[in-house]
Backbone:
């Protein structure tokens, strides 16, 4: 079929007419299935598997939803398949690159769905274990290629690993704006997100921890009609490694300014706006070299607010405030592991679980003397003994 030539101003619109092909390939010692020229296919849906409680559903155009356990612990909005396809460029990864060539700044937006003036090829890779997915765009005009991969980490969360490669013979001066869009705060109600997303947006708040690249995403308060205080004490987090950042953005408000050539300013505290995380980094990329960096996102980070509730409730004096670190310290020798602190903590920054028999034997041997609660009631017997585990925010002084 003959195609007519279309122009954007004086520049012809470049369309990739190469056929779609599939083959097994090796990347960094790992076997992947590669779909070449994937942009010539209709959008399709994929999932990434995990050995833990992480889940991710992603469109071949890059839009996605992800989280842990269920939709109530989502990092990106939990929508149906058709809406995820439609949110291309609005949810998930987004990258913009300014390339200085011949005293001109040329803008390149990899994986942008609009007709482009560059000759590009887009490929998709998925490994045999189905726990890693790679998007690749090769810009033949700028002699650059950009690749990012999604993978899971039970310890750190969702990891986006990026790689920018210079295939030309000259060193390139670049400005990079890379990040994630439409990041949800922790404890966002999925029903409210579906029915009244504009109302939920009004409760969103993003903060940047000074001196770090760590952005936290939370609700200013839990939306409720009840006449009672309802504070949100959990946060979602995003941080960056591998870039010398010039500015960090917590929303998409300055993306258009970057596209227009204006300087960017770091955002420290953003309210009532959809969350995003962008890193602005200038760099020099030598010929034949590449640069790697990573963005790491996690959901439901439990947060100790140093509210002193556990300190007041502990009958053994085993908890003391650490005013310099803004947290609570648990004194192991004094702790009887009764679980009262975990029961009263409003932010669930302490976790209370049943001991295994072997653990209970250790505790019984350690505290051979009879132990009693305030008021004289005995503590639980061996099989009802309990322990406290310390997530981020609380710390044991004895390791």
Residues:
């Amino acid at each position: 079929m003959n195609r007519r030539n279309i122009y954007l101003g004086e520049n012809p619109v470049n369309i990739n007419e190469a056929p779609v092909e599939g083959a097994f390939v090796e990347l960094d010692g790992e076997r992947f299935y590669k779909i070449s020229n994937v942009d010539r296919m209709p959008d399709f849906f994929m999932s990434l598997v995990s050995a833990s409680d992480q889940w991710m559903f992603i469109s071949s155009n890059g839009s996605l939803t992800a989280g842990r356990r269920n939709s109530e612990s989502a990092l990106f909005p939990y929508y149906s398949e058709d809406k995820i396809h439609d949110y291309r460029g609005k949810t998930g990864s987004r990258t913009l690159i300014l390339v200085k060539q011949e005293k001109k700044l040329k803008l390149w937006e990899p994986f942008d769905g609009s007709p482009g003036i560059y000759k590009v090829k887009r490929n998709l890779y998925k490994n045999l274990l189905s726990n890693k997915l790679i998007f690749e765009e090769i810009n033949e005009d700028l002699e650059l290629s950009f690749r990012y991969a999604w993978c899971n980490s039970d310890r750190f969360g969702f990891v986006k690993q990026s790689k920018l490669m210079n295939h030309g013979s000259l060193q390139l001066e670049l400005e990079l704006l890379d990040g994630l869009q439409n990041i949800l705060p922790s404890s966002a109600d999925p029903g409210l997100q579906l029915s009244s997303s504009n109302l939920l947006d009004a409760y969103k708040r993003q903060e940047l921890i000074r001196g770090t690249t760590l952005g936290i995403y939370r609700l200013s308060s839990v939306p409720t009609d009840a006449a009672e205080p309802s504070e949100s004490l959990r946060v979602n987090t995003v941080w960056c490694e591998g870039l010398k950042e010039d500015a960090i953005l917590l929303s998409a408000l300055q993306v258009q300014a970057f596209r227009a050539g204006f300087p960017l300013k770091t955002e420290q505290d953003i309210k009532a706006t959809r969350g995003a995380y962008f890193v602005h980094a200038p760099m020099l990329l030598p010929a034949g070299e590449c640069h790697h960096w990573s963005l790491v996102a996690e959901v439901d980070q439990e947060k100790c607010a140093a509210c002193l509730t556990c300190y007041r409730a502990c009958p053994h004096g085993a908890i003391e405030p650490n005013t310099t670190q803004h947290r609570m310290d648990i004194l192991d020798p004094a702790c009887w592991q009764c679980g009262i602190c975990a029961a009263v903590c409003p932010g669930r920054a302490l976790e209370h679980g049943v001991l295994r028999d072997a653990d209970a034997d250790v505790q019984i041997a350690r505290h051979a003397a009879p132990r009693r609660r305030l008021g004289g009631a005995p503590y639980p017997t061996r099989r009802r003994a309990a322990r406290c585990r310390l997530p981020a925010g609380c710390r044991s002084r004895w390791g």
